[in-house]
Amino acid sequence: MKKMKKLVSLLLTLVMVAAMAVSVSADDTTTYTITIEGSMSASGTTESHTYSAYQVFAGDLATDGTTLSNVTWGTGVNSTSLLTAVKAITDGDDTPFANCSTAAEVAEVLGGYSDNSDVAKAFATAVSNNLADTASGSASTTNDSGNYVISNLTAGYYFVKDSASLDGLDAAATRYILEVVSNVTVTPKSDTPTVTKKVKETNDTTNTTSTWQDAADYDINDTIPYQLTGTLPDVLSDYSTYAYTFTDTMSVGLTYSSDSVKVYVVTGDDKTEVASSGYTASTTTIDSTATSYAGGTTLTVAISDVKSLKDTSGAAITVTSDSTIVVEYSATLNSNAVIGSAGNPNEVYLTYSNNPNGSGTGKTPTDKVIVFTYEIDANKVREATAEDETSNSTVPLSGAGFTLYKLVDGTYTIVGSEVTGGTTFTFQGVDAGTYKLVETTVPDGYNKADDVIFNIVATYTDSSDDPSLSALSVTNSENTTISGENGSFTATSESGIVSTDILNQKGSVLPTTGGMGTTILYVIGTILVLGAAILLVTKKRMSSER
């Protein structure tokens, strides 16, 4: 059985698949054609193939156009070595070809098995390992209909293989043994997997988390969850082993959370975690001179064989063509994060086995998600005076300090620390939500500005192959644009900057005591006292003279 599994891994070098459209015309011709329909790769490019047909059995075609009699070995195989290989094929505990010594006897036994049986696959593998040096016919170019045509074939049983290299293409070969007893047209079944990447959005203010989507916004230092999902081909059973590697590229504004990778097999509603021994997760730093994602990180999650995965308890996981392979991990938005619509993207592609008959890997197109973050600028101003010699109504004012608070689960929480110095106070790396801007250091001689509460509202495509930030705005609790004493906000999606002017008013100048007014009272009092004394002396003199 072990040997048979090894044979199955090489089975069908080609291409023809289980879905085969056959058109037969039994006529008087003595040669026939195999027409192989052309196909496009999953990425939309024309696949380039070279199909070669090898005659396994020769014989006489009956008038019914379906029966091959007087079977002998064909010209496309090394019959002696092939017979030896065929005798070794097992079916459970049985060796069905053990007593065969002629091509006719082998053909008779083979005719008792279906095309997709393990015995038929093992026979195909034996043929692929014992082909003649020269094919019976081949086709490497297409006709006007885009099909490959192998012509001038005599009646017989043929093995067809695709010898073109599909490495690095989003394409795969399949395998099949094709019995040709007349002209036949086949549709090759070359199924390939796909990969998608998603991110979740968490709104701190509303305490809600989205489903998996293509874009989100976050604060710097937030942890961001990511998900990679890969499908499996319909022809997974044609492979003895199936390699599968996710390559995920993060921009420089994202820091991979070490050891955060989890791998799952999902079949229907069943989601089973894969034991860490079933895959490797590694990271590399992208060269700083790279044309894209310079200085970022590449995360590689490699599975050598999806068909031999085990769960965390050590039990084998059943993986079928209906299963998906899911990778979940997290990253932190760091201080290198790009503000605004350029965002902080990352993307993934999948490398997968694409030759059931040997080595070879295909590669899917990339799928991208993006995380946005924004900036708040508070410009400190006062009313302009004549001395300022400006036509503006306000001018910058220094000496203030601001603290930003964010509404998180019903409570305002400090974002970072107080920002002081200069006249513009910048808070970088914030996401959508409700904020409160508080003047925590007031310029000398000025009254404290009122607290400003506002909402940052972002609009972006959350389901797109190329997600983008389309709008950024600021509203109050009534969802209207903020305006008033401290001016209105401006918001630009491209720059990602939300800006407002915070106006301070001078304090009032109140009356004081102990100044000139008191001195004047003292002087007036003294004069009155002196006048009274003079009047008293004068009256006394006048009285004595009498």
What's the gyration radius in Å?
A: 42 Å
Given as residue ranges, the uncertain stretches (5+ residues, pLDDT < 50) are: 1-28
Number of helices: 5
| Spatial gap, N to C terminus | 160 Å
Q: Structural class of the helices, strands and pairings?
A: mainly beta
Q: How many β-strand runs?
A: 33
* Largest sheet: number of strands, sense, barrel closure: 7 strands, mixed
The average pLDDT score comes to 85
Summarize the entry for a quick read.
This protein is mainly beta. 12% of the residues lie in helices and 37% in strands. The strands form seven sheets. Strands 12, 14, 18, 19, 21, 22 and 23 form a seven-stranded mixed sheet that branches. Strands 9, 13, 15, 16, 17 and 20 form a six-stranded antiparallel sheet that branches. Strands 2, 3, 4, 6 and 7 form a five-stranded antiparallel sheet that branches.
Kindly describe this structure.
The chain contains 5 helices and 33 strands. It has helices spanning 2-10, 79-87, 103-110, 118-128, 516-545; strands spanning 32-36, 51-61, 68-73, 137-139, 148-153, 156-162, 177-180, 184-186, 195-199, 202-203, 208-209, 215-217, 223-231, 244-250, 254-256, 262-267, 270-273, 280-285, 297-303, 324-333, 344-353, 361-363, 367-372, 374-383, 394-396, 401-408, 411-420, 424-430, 433-441, 452-460, 469-475, 490-492, 497-504. Residues 1-28 have low confidence and may be disordered. Helix 1 (2-10) packs across helix 4. It has 546 residues and is mainly beta. The protein starts with a helix and ends with a helix. Strand 16 (262-267) and strand 17 (270-273) form a beta hairpin. The chain is elongated, with a radius of gyration of 42 Å. Strands 12, 14, 18, 19, 21, 22 and 23 form a 7-stranded mixed sheet that branches. The relative contact order is 0.12.
